[in-house]
Amino acid sequence: MSDQNTNGAIAPADAATGPAFTVEKIYVKDVSFESPNAPAVFNEAVQPELQLNLNQRVQRLGENAFEVVLAVTLTCKAGDKTAYVAEVQQAGVFGLIGLEPQAIDVLLGTQCPNILFPYVRSLVSELIQAGGFPPFFLQPINFEGLYAETLRQRQEQGETSLADSEPAGNA
C-alpha cells in the first residue's frame, strides 16, 4: 500500500514515478438485511418480485485520493408482503496520480465500481442465504455503459466531472 498522509492523499514521493492508479483500501461502509414478514413469508406460494437499486458516490479525500461507494439495495416482495431488503454499501479508496481530469473521471466511473462489484455481489448473496432465502446472484453490470449515460446526462445539464469535486473536510 502507498504511504498516505492523514487526509488520505498519496505521499508526494509516489508522484515521481508517473501516472498511477492504485487500490488503497476496500471495505464495507454499511450493510443491512431485513426480513420483516418472516417466518410467515416463507410459506407464500407466489412468484417473488425483485427490485434492484444501484447507486455510486465519489468523494475526493485529498489531491490524489478518492473514496468510491457502490451501493446496492435489493428488495424482494412476495405478493403484497416484503420478503426481504438487502442493502450493501461497498467502498474503496483509490489513488489516482498524474492523470488528466478526464482520465480520472473515467476511472472513477468505470474501473472503481468494476473493482467493487464482486464484493457487493458476494455480500448480497451471503445476506440473502443467511436470511433463509434461495441463493440470489447479481448479474454483471455494464459500468462503462452506465458511465456513458451519466456522462451524456451531465453534459446536457452542464455539470462537471466527478474528479472536480472538492476534497472532503476542506470547507
From TrEMBL:
The keyword Protein transport applies. GO terms for cellular component: cytoplasm. Its main location: cytoplasm. Keywords: Chaperone, Cytoplasm, Protein transport, Translocation, Transport. It is found in: Cytoplasm. Transmembrane segments: none annotated. NCBIfam families: PRK05751.1-2 (NF004391), PRK05751.1-4 (NF004393), secB (TIGR00809). One of the proteins required for the normal export of preproteins out of the cell cytoplasm. It is a molecular chaperone that binds to a subset of precursor proteins, maintaining them in a translocation-competent state. It also specifically binds to its receptor SecA. Belongs to the SecB family. PANTHER family: PROTEIN-EXPORT PROTEIN SECB (PTHR36918:SF1), PTHR36918. This is Protein-export protein SecB. It comes from Stenotrophomonas maltophilia.
